[in-house]
Design brief:
Blueprint (H helix, E strand, L loop, with lengths): L1 E5 L4 H12 L3 E6 L11 E4 L5 H8 L4 E6 L5 H11 L3 E7 L26 H19 L4 E6 L1 E3 L15 H6 L4 E4 L5 E6 H11 L9 E4 L4 E3 H12 L5 E4 L1 H7 L5 H7 L8 H6 L9 H15 L9 H13 L1
Parallel strand pairs: 1-2, 1-4, 2-3, 4-5, 5-6, 6-10, 7-9, 8-12
Antiparallel strand pairs: 9-11
Helix pairs in contact: 1-6, 3-4, 7-11
Length: 327
């Protein structure tokens, strides 16, 4: 199986490549070469996805069994993918996002692939437009397309988000015995899935005809409240979790740019049903518990020297003081 991964070295991509190699696939990755090198045996093509004429020239005459695009974020890029790869690959897999669903809470708690797609962010809207382009090409018969929608995916090489930020100071505060913030009452549901588990869905969906023309959530079945999420990290750090709660609105008033994760994603319901993916791709089993994955990631963050310090973060301290008064 000859596979092209557009991207190939990000958090999810690393899990995908791992499982493609386990399938004995011939793997080629295309990226700018600014991140870590892929494993031995993986072919590397270097270039800039943003340079569409160059991107077109590189792949216009190539043929693949499977193309997996991890870094298509705009409809213009999706249209270019269709132009290049239509009738030139046996299967095209697009990495979308659960952000295409928007922020409503379903009556049955878990969001499956039938849930209405009403994204609120530019990121989510663009991903939805991309989905529509690829599925349109599938209906026209020019591309066997599959859409995969990961949620929060974590693992070595990435960050461990909290309820407020992509790169939080909460874990440093927790380690120092200081209180940390959580928006709302901490009872909102969330799911975080390890990159190796998400990677299985992409790798084993490849050339599986059941997946052609289908959309899939790619999430673990281990759903946590935000309070449980924080307490799991605290247990890994072997520290107490001194949680203080503050309305999301109040936190966002202080700095909507810094807390953009909260504004667009984590302030809302985040529980997803991936039963459809497990039905059609039985190899997609989630084996890494959140506690195990957090322990691995924290060790990796320390080893990379990117542990985020909370020293002199006056804004966060002010918000903690506000929350303490409200408790």
């Amino acid at each position: 199986m000859k596979v092209l991964v557009i991207g190939g070295t990000g958090v999810i991509s690393t899990g995908i490549v791992k499982h493609l190699l386990a399938r004995k696939a011939e793997v080629t990755v295309f990226n700018r070469g600014r991140r870590s090198q892929p494993p031995a045996g993986v072919n590397v093509l270097q270039g800039d996805r943003g340079d569409l004429p160059s991107f077109r020239r590189m792949f216009d005459r190539s043929a693949w069994d499977v193309v997996i695009d991890m870094i298509c974020f705009t409809p213009e890029e999706a249209i270019e993918d269709v132009r290049i790869f239509a009738n030139k690959c046996r299967h095209f897999i697009f990495c979308s996002t659960v952000c295409t669903y928007g922020t409503k809470t379903p009556s049955r708690v878990f969001i499956d692939e039938s849930f209405p797609q009403e994204p609120i962010s530019i990121y989510g809207r663009n991903k939805l437009l991309c989905e529509q382009i690829f599925l349109g090409a599938h209906r026209e018969g020019s591309l066997n397309a599959t859409i995969v929608r990961p949620s929060c995916t974590y693992g070595p090489g990435g960050n461990l988000i909290d309820n407020l930020e992509f790169d939080p100071v909460a874990w440093d505060r927790m380690e120092r015995g200081l209180p940390v913030l959580c928006a709302g009452d901490g009872l909102g549901l969330w799911v975080a899935t390890h990159r190796d588990d998400v990677g299985k869905l992409f790798a084993y969906a490849a050339l599986n005809p059941k997946t052609f023309g289908e959309t899939y959530n790619a999430t673990s079945g281990e759903h946590l409240t935000w309070e449980q999420y924080y307490r799991t990290v605290a247990a890994v750090l072997n520290k107490p979790a001194d949680l203080h709660y503050l309305p999301a609105r109040r936190i966002l008033q202080s700095d909507p740019v810094r807390f953009s994760l909260l504004r667009e994603i984590t302030a809302f319901h985040g529980a997803y049903d991936s039963g459809k993916a497990r039905r059609d791709v039985p190899e997609f089993t989630c084996e890494v518990s959140f506690a195990e994955g957090v322990s691995e990631l924290i060790d990796d963050i320390r080893a990379r020297g990117v542990w985020k310090s909370s020293a002199e973060d006056s804004l966060y301290e002010q918000l903690v003081a506000t929350a303490s008064k409200a408790d």
